[in-house]
Design a protein that fits this description.
It contains 14 helices and 14 strands. By secondary structure, it is α/β, with parallel strands linked by helices. It folds into 2 domains: about 120 residues, Enolase-like, N-terminal domain (Enolase-like, domain 1); about 230 residues, Alpha-Beta Barrel (TIM Barrel). Strands 4-5-6-7-8-9-10-11 form an 8-stranded parallel barrel, surrounded by 6 helices. Helix 2 runs antiparallel to helix 3, helix 8 runs parallel beside helix 9 and helix 10 runs parallel beside helix 11.
C-alpha cells in the first residue's frame, strides 16, 4: 500500500478560544480573543494536522458533512478529497465558515500525505525556494504610542524584519488625522531602511482613500491594504490608479471565482490569500496560478506557520504576514512553530509541515 491509497480512519476537530492580553481593534472591528479550530486526520497511527481561525461552528462541519465526504473517498488523495468536500457542501454555500472548515481539513490532509510519503510538506507541494520574506503585523488602533513603539522595535530591531504594518482607518475612517499621526510615528520608530505598510480594513470611502494615498507618500508607505472594502473592486482599482503604494486585498477570498473577479478588475498590485479561508493548500495553488497568469504576486494573509510550506512552493510569492496574534497562538499551541529572523522564514524541519499540537497546553482554551 502506498501513501496515496491509504484509508482515512478518522477526522477529529476541536475549537479553542484564546483571549488577547488587552482588547484590540482595527478600522472596522474590535475583538478580545481569537478562536482557532484544530483538525486531525488519522490513518493508522499517523495524524495530519491543520487549522483555521474561525468560529467554533466549524467543528460540526468538519466532524459531520466534510469528514463524511473525505471518508467516503476511501483513500488519502488530497485533490480527490477536496472535490468530494466541494460536492458535499453544494446546498450549504461555499464562502464563509464552510470554506474555513474545508481549509482546515484540506491542510490536515496534505500534512498527513507528506508524513506518510516520508517527505516535508513543502517538497510534496513543489518547493521552489528555501525561504520567504515576512513582515511584522499588528499595530492595532487601540495601542498607545508606547505599545506601538514596542511592537515596531521588536520587529524591526530585535527580529530584524525590514517590513512592518500598522492598522489605520480608525473608527470607520473617522479619525484620519490620528491615522496620519500614527503613520508618521511608525516611520520615526522604524527608521528609513524599513518598509512601512498600512491596512485600513476597508474603512475608507474612495474619496478618503484617495486623499490618504497622497498623504502616505510623505512617509514613503509602500503597501496600502484594503483602502476601501474588498467588495468594491472598482473602488480598489481607482485607488490603485492614484496610489504610489501597492494596493493589496484578497484576504476574504473563499473561492477561486472571487480571486478571478478581483484579478480581472485589475484591483490589486498584490493578491492576498489566506490558506485558512480560501480552501486550503489545494485552492491556494490554483489561486497563485491565476495570479501568475496576470504577472501578479501573492502574499499570505495571517496563519504564518501554516502558510510557510505552500509559500516556498509558490513561484510568484512576495511575503507572509507574521500577524502578532496568530504568532502568539501558534507558538503556544504547536511544537515546531518557527520564528522569523532577518526578515525571512524557512519551513519547519521534519515530515509534513513539521508541527504537532501541544494538547496539554491547548486544553485550557478548549470551547468545543
Amino acid at each position: 500500500m502506498t501513501w496515496f491509497d491509504t484509508p482515512v480512519d478518522a477526522v477529529e476537530a476541536a475549537a479553542y478560544r484564546v483571549p488577547v492580553p488587552v482588547g484590540e481593534a482595527d478600522g472596522t472591528l474590535q475583538w478580545d480573543g481569537t478562536t482557532i479550530v484544530v483538525v486531525h486526520v488519522c490513518a493508522g497511527e499517523m495524524r495530519g494536522l491543520g487549522w483555521t481561525y474561525a468560529d467554533r461552528a466549524c467543528v460540526s462541519l468538519i466532524q459531520g458533512i466534510l469528514g463524511d465526504a473525505v471518508r467516503r473517498t476511501g483513500t488519502l488523495q488530497p485533490q480527490a478529497n477536496w472535490h468530494a468536500m466541494q460536492r458535499a457542501i453544494r446546498n450549504l454555500g461555499r464562502p464563509g465558515l464552510v470554506s474555513c472548515a474545508m481549509s482546515a481539513l484540506d491542510t490536515a490532509l496534505w500534512d498527513l500525505s507528506a508524513r506518510l510519503a516520508g517527505l516535508p510538506l513543502s517538497r510534496l507541494l513543489g518547493q521552489v525556494r528555501d525561504e520567504v520574506d515576512v513582515y511584522g503585523s499588528g499595530g492595532f488602533t487601540t495601542l498607545a504610542n508606547s505599545e506601538l513603539q514596542a511592537q515596531i522595535e521588536d520587529w524591526a530591531h530585535e527580529k530584524r524584519i525590514p517590513r512592518v504594518k500598522i492598522k489605520v482607518g480608525e473608527s470607520w475612517g473617522s479619525r484620519t488625522n490620528r491615522d496620519l499621526s500614527r503613520v508618521e510615528f511608525t516611520r520615526k520608530v522604524a527608521g528609513d531602511d524599513v518598509d512601512v505598510y498600512v491596512d485600513a480594513n476597508g474603512a475608507y470611502s474612495v474619496g478618503q482613500a484617495s486623499r490618504m494615498a497622497r498623504r502616505l507618500t510623505e512617509w514613503n508607505v509602500s503597501w496600502f491594504e484594503e483602502p476601501v472594502s474588498s467588495d468594491d473592486l472598482s473602488g480598489l482599482a481607482r485607488i490603485r490608479g492614484v496610489a504610489d503604494a501597492d494596493v493589496a486585498a484578497g484576504e476574504y477570498g473563499y473561492d477561486l471565482v472571487y480571486f478571478e473577479q478581483m484579478l480581472a478588475a485589475e484591483a490589486v498590485d498584490c493578491l492576498q490569500v489566506d490558506v485558512t479561508r480560501c480552501g486550503g493548500y489545494t485552492e491556494w495553488l490554483r489561486v497563485a496560478a491565476l495570479a501568475a497568469a496576470r504577472n501578479i504576486e501573492v502574499s499570505a494573509h495571517c496563519a504564518p506557520n501554516l502558510s510557510t510550506p505552500v509559500a516556498v512552493a509558490t513561484p510568484n510569492f512576495r511575503h507572509i504576514e507574521w500577524f502578532i496574534d496568530h504568532d502568539r497562538i501558534e507558538s503556544e499551541f504547536f511544537d515546531g512553530a518557527t520564528t522569523p529572523l532577518g526578515g525571512v522564514v524557512a519551513p519547519a524541519a521534519g515530515l509534513g509541515h513539521g508541527m504537532t499540537l501541544r494538547e496539554v497546553d491547548a486544553r485550557r482554551y478548549r470551547v468545543a
